[in-house]
């Protein structure tokens, strides 16, 4: 009996539980630029599919209450990549206009001397998010020192 080799897996889409669907759709659409691909409801159970260039990225499910709990097993944070630090700063400006609280002060590197880096913040339900670029952050601070910036926050 041979060892099974798993195929290379990729992320299909991310599903998030949200407390107020309309508020979350506005945030992910108007602030982060996702397209609203579809919405639906089954009684009071509502959902929205969001994407980019017609491709599904996020599904939002209105089936929770309260705020995201960072002290429970589950999602640590959700990271979105862009191609340049200038694009990270564009997202940062849009978030700043809407008074979103950042978890670090501005753009930070993923580690000391590392080129990749970005911004860290939370959505309206407290779900921790990151927008990063693969390079350009070499001179940005690394608030966690040798530990990955995206790890313990």
Automatic annotation (TrEMBL):
Cross-referenced InterPro entries: Fosfomycin_Res_Enzymes, Glyas_Bleomycin-R_OHBP_Dase, Glyas_Fos-R_dOase_dom, Glyoxalase_1_CS, VOC_core
Membrane spanning stretches: none
Record carries keyword Cell membrane: no
Identification of the protein by name: VOC domain-containing protein
CDD domains from the UniProt entry: VOC
Alphabetic keyword roster: Metal-binding
Superkingdom, natural source: Bacteria
UniProt KW rRNA processing keyword: no
Residues of the VOC domain: 10-134
GO MF: lactoylglutathione lyase activity; metal ion binding
């Amino acid at each position: 009996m041979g060892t099974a080799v798993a195929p290379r897996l990729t992320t299909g889409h991310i599903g998030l539980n949200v407390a107020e669907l309309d508020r979350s759709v506005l945030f992910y659409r108007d602030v982060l630029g996702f397209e609203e691909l579809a919405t639906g409801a089954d009684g009071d159970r509502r959902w929205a599919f969001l994407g980019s260039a017609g491709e599904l990225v996020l599904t939002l499910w209105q089936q929770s209450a309260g705020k995201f709990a960072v002290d429970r097993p589950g999602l640590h944070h959700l990271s979105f990549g862009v191609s340049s630090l200038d694009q990270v700063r564009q997202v940062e400006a849009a978030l700043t206009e809407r008074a979103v609280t950042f978890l670090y002060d501005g753009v930070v590197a993923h580690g000391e001397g590392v080129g990749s880096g970005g911004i860290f913040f939370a959505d309206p339900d407290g779900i921790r998010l990151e927008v990063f670029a693969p390079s350009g952050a070499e001179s940005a601070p690394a608030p966690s020192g040798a530990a990955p910036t995206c790890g313990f926050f």
